[in-house]
Amino acid sequence: MMYEWKQTEDSIWKIGKRNVLQVIFSRTMLIMALIVIQFAYIIARMYTFAEHIPVILGSEMIAVAIILLFIINSQENPMIRLSWCFFVGVFPILGSVIYFVIHFDLGYRVIQKRILMMAKESRKYTLEQSEILAQIKEKDYQTYCIAQYLNQYSGNNISANSDVAYFSSGEMLFEEMIKQLESATQYIFLEYFLISPGIMWNTILGILERKAKDSVDIKILYDGSCSVTLLPYKYPKQIEKLGIQCKMFSPPIPFLSMHHNNRDHRKIMIIDGRVAFTGGINLCDEYINVNSPYGHWKDVGIMVNGDAVFEFTKIFMQMWSATINKKSSDLVFPNMQKYLPTKNDSKKIFKGYVIPYADHPVDDENIGKMVYMDILNQAKKYVYIMTPYLILDNEMKCAILFAAKRGIEVQIILPHIPDKKSVFALARENYKSLLEAGVKVYEYTPGFIHAKVFVSDDERAVVGTINLDYRSLYWHYECAAYLYKVQAIKDIYSDFVETRNKCMKVTQETIKQQNVLGRVFVCILKIVAPLM
Does residue 1 lie in a domain region? Predict the structure, then answer.
């Protein structure tokens, strides 16, 4: 199923409208508004309260010193703390206000309690896996270490009898989705960051409507950011009229909703416990290259079947249960017995190991980041990466540089046509140090690359929703699958090579093309990059 890319006047208008609304509802607009208010306060202080300036300045200095001590002694990433210190130091009053509003936001505290409670309840279905861990330990001790880490800290089981199919484009994945949805007889669960009316979503919704009439249990969970630009605010009620359960995660409120930092960035589709899909592909037309605003949209995804599907079901149910409109004390994690995989007593053929895992911002464990760093640190030959964004904290950057410096072939594919120019500028700021360390960087010249892929040594890979930026590694709810010695790794490797052949290789000359104003702009951006 292929779709020709074209950009109509209507699609251009929709893109423009979306961009305007994104600015209005964004943290950037909030920060700009606060900066204006801050300067207005400074002017008022100079002319209205001139005789009291020594007292005012002294009080401000004491207050800022106390707040900075609080920030420095917090448990956040050092780069995030540094950004907050700069922001509060330059804009003391309003910087302090926004910091405390974000960190003591009631909405965040409520969802934090709910998510942690559901994660704890779901651990009843985490198996004792000493036998399979012993098998992995015998094959590869390094893989055993990351497997037991994921089993312990994500609460997900390791599957040794799951098949994985890799799809190198949204068009291919969509075609398989339609096939699997049409065969559903029991239940369909969807959890997506973005859903937008169009060919892709309208086709899927048509199938869901028919399946609902056949008594198939359908649950849809999508992130509240869709209500800003893509869907009506009361869209869940429209969907429920079709006999489908639908909920919006964390509906945003302009400027005031500070937990809009913590978006549900996951992409999961589960059908009858037989198959599960994940990857970078949202349910929007640009992901299948219909009216793509940034040239050819390159994205990837996987379909798993076998025991690993149950792990994605657990991940979905954690979030679904946490968003039920009840008091936290009344929340109950669903009985998962009916979703348990069917026991297969036939002789098992080793298919490699699949470990689905989730990452969320409500605890102190950055699982997505740890898995990526483990691949970089344990690689023996190569690490190939596809990512749309490259806003690196110090630890991740050091891991990439160290891998290259110790002789590992590190290659990174990034977009050539960016969807966010400021983020793209920050990515290019890393080019100089990466090239000097021996990292090979490529830009996908046909358009925008949205894939989130790590593949290493022909043995291990990660495909999921996790970007190399602060949002994915610290702020958002994410998911992925860790793959070890599964057949699909060959397809992932081949797709990387094929994609690389369509790219422009970044050189020192590429870096020199940036003008002085652009470099100054990036220097300013770097200060607030951890908060973007």
Answer: no
